[in-house]
Amino acid sequence: EARVPTPPPAKTFASVECQTDFEPEPVQPDFQPEEYDVDEYATQTVPAPVAAQPSPPPPPVPFSGISDAMRQKYTWIPDGITTDDQVELYFAGFPMRERPIRGTEGERYRLMQLDRQLPRHDVDPKACRGLRQEDVPQFQKFNAHKVQHACDCGTVVEADCDTPCFRCGETISSGQLAVTAERILAPNGLTALFHSDSCFICEVCEVPLADLFCFITQENNVMCGRHYADSILPRCSSCDETIFEKDYTHAEELDFHLEHFCCKHCDEQMLGRAYVMVSGEPTCTACYEEKYAERCEACKLPIELTAPKVTDGRAHGRVWHTTCFVCHECKQSMEGRRVIPREGNLYCQEDYNRVFKKVNRKSLRSKPKVRPSAASVMSMAFADEW
Fold first, then answer.
1. Ramachandran quadrant class, 220 (left: phi over 0; alpha: psi -120 to 50; beta: rest)
2. HEC letters along 330-349
3. % of the chain at pLDDT higher than 90
4. How far apart are the C-alpha atoms of 329 and 263, rounded to whole Å?
5. Which parts of the chain fold into alpha helices (H)?
6. Rg of the chain in Å (alpha carbons)
7. Within a 13 Å sphere around the CA of 131, how many CA atoms are in the beta-carbon half?
8. How far apart are CA 232 and CA 303, in angstroms?
9. pTM of the model
């Protein structure tokens, strides 16, 4: 017989018991609201808010820079000056005509000094008239050397103690304005100081350096740009430019490009020819005799440079050719003889007495009461002519 197996009894969840040791604690809130007495709070009076009182303004800060008005007054103010008082104190040491006040002679003087001490054709090859194209690299190399080894600019400072001036040796008092240049050191190893109004000048031309722009030599001498360049290379006296060629002309202690040593009037080359220097420029003898030579008092023609002449012994007085220095009557030379001038002519003693005594006798017949002596006649003759 087939038997159907009897299923096991079904398990119910009711018969399962949970066992645990964890018991949750009651949660307490962190914020506990306060309890207010509403009736008591309603009866209190809330004071009105107090208006904020404005704080007193801060005290004015003293002005410590250079004012716009001062910058408008002067066209240039040196580096190192920080107040208006220092500006006025610095420029007070210079004559009025040298102070760069806008619209005055001092402004023009500063521009003139800049052009003189720092010529544009010394730094810009485009401004040169006599610079050859093959000399441009040497021109640029020369300027790079100047900037790297010598160029500097003075700065105005206040001396913090009594210090001797580097140039004159006189004392610069503590608190006094002075000029310093970084490249120049005093014997004590510190930066040298100069009197600002009289000692920071070019060693060659002895003129204050424009805008305190300077060049320092190996001997610690201060120079302007022009004379520093001249201490290394010659400068043409005609075009005022530095000479880079090996061949040039040296005449009358002046230097010239070969092509610039010519007559200032006719432009003829003067190499190997006679010339006369006029205002630092050569002039050929023909142009000199035409424009500058002395004129003979008798013939009114110029007196040649090498020709002998006779003068009256006075500075810028009258001169004659030796062939024209003769008596107006006898045509004999007056050299070594007494000369009597009369009416623009020269007379020897004999001819003067012969010619003018006859005139005196005629005048005496017309005026018998007047009897001038011979001495008075001679004195009147000299007074009229000389």
1. left
2. CCCECCCCCCEEECCEEECH
3. 39
4. 43
5. 38-42, 68-73, 84-91, 105-117, 136-149, 225-230, 285-291, 349-366, 374-385
6. 51
7. 18
8. 43
9. 0.63
User: Quick one: tokens of 172?
Assistant: 């610069």
Q: Which residue has the tokens 């009736």?
A: 39
Q: Which residue has the higher pLDDT, 107 or 26?
A: 107
Matching residue, tokens 């006094």: 176
Contacts 24+ apart (CB under 8 A), 349-355: 351/327, 352/381, 354/329, 355/329
User: Helices 349-366 and 374-385 meet at what angle, rounded to 10?
Assistant: 110
pLDDT digits (tens, 9 = 90+) for 87-131: 999 999 999 999 999 999 999 999 999 999 999 999 999 999 888
Q: Give CA separation, 64 vs 68, 86, 286, in Å.
A: 12, 11, 68
Structure-block tokens of residue 219: 């001997």
Cβ distance 87 to 74 under 8 Å? yes
Whether residue 212 contacts residue 200, with contact meaning beta carbons closer than 8 Å, is answered with: yes
**For the purposes of burial, counting CB atoms within 10 Å of the CB of 116, is it exposed (0-12), middle (13-18) or buried (19 or more)?**
middle
Query: Does residue 246 sit in helix, strand or coil?
Result: coil
Q: Residue with structure tokens 């014997």?
A: 187
Tokens, residue 22? 């964890």
Instruction: State the pLDDT at residue 175.
Output: 92
CB burial readout 322-359, b (16+ within 10 A) else e: eebbbbbeeeeebeeeeebbbeeebbbeebbbeebeee
Q: Look up tokens 């030796």; give the residue.
A: 322
Q: How many helices (H) and strands (E) does the chain have?
A: 9, 16
pLDDT tens track for 304-363: 777 888 877 676 678 888 888 888 888 888 787 888 888 778 888 888 888 887 655 555
Token pair in block for residue 130: 């006599």
